[in-house]
Q: What sequence folds into this?
């Protein structure tokens, strides 16, 4: 039991490629530590609609699998297959991929730390890096 | 820091078609304002298992893309392809589409307002409007 | 309005098969009751990256549909089609299925009870039971 406390921090990333996976667990954990919050909920959300935040295994082979898999469901090309791209953008596929990967994760904070399972890592996936 | 406060509001929609996308950002924002909550988390969830709440770009072309894309993954017809429809319902596809679009969004409230990215809009997608 | 309170409980399941759906609404509801929390948010998350937590209809036919549908998107075999499985594991498909089914649900607590729609049930889906 305690007084409610809230804390907000923006994390910025520069990604060198159009598609990239970034493990953000360390930065999220250190934001939790800075906040001084002992028990509560931690919302981690993307603010760009072509990037996502999700919790899964942080393993390079899996990320390659994700990329192939997402491309199969929502291919970037041909860009004119999407009505959204008539706006002059070419990122319709990224909006669809977001629905699979998810915009946000809500994590428990227990005893001052992120309460994650043994293999759980928070990742951000960017679908429109560099050009986005 | 402050005393914890909670606020609940039900939003009701009448949608004219089986499938519809409704931008609910304005109504969610005004519920946040009414609540008087300055810092916290805002849960926005569907309560019907054939409708969803998600955050993405609110653009008509994109919504048309979503509809085609969802239909490809979980076609409504033939309805007898789904075991669930043996119950006498015909909405199995809508239950599957929900898993892609998501039941809920958790939004941050910062300084009394929804803390959304520049293009982020909260939308509700109904897969079983009119008849639902 | 009230003092903030938090409560954490781990639910453990033994599932007899590789794939299984377990309705956890009752156990989540009783954890809410034990917590004494009247208004707030309830995070229910999986801690294994091959299992998921989601809210949908709890109907056997639908679960059979989910299983077929997930297998179509992310087939378990051939296991060597996934880069992740080069690590010696064979669960890449389960990691992908997790992205569709979701790791967590955030539920509202209203007046001391889970605030679910009439057909909403919280379920956990295990993709790697027994061997996981």
A:
């Amino acid at each position: 039991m305690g007084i409610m406390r809230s804390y907000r921090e923006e994390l910025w990333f520069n990604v060198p490629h159009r598609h990239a996976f970034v493990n953000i667990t360390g930065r999220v954990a250190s934001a939790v530590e800075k906040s001084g919050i002992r028990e509560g909920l931690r919302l981690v959300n993307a603010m760009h609609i072509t990037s996502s935040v999700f919790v899964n295994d942080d393993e390079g082979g899996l990320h390659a699998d994700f990329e192939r898999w997402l491309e199969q469901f929502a291919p970037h090309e041909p860009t004119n297959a999407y009505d959204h791209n008539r706006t002059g953008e070419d990122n319709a596929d990224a909006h669809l991929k977001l629905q699979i990967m998810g915009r946000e994760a809500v994590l428990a904070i227990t005893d001052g730390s992120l309460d994650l399972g043994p293999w759980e890592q928070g990742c951000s996936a960017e679908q429109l890096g560099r050009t986005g």
Summary: The longest helix of chain A spans residues 60-73. The radius of gyration of chain A is 17 Å. The longest strand of chain A covers residues 104-110.
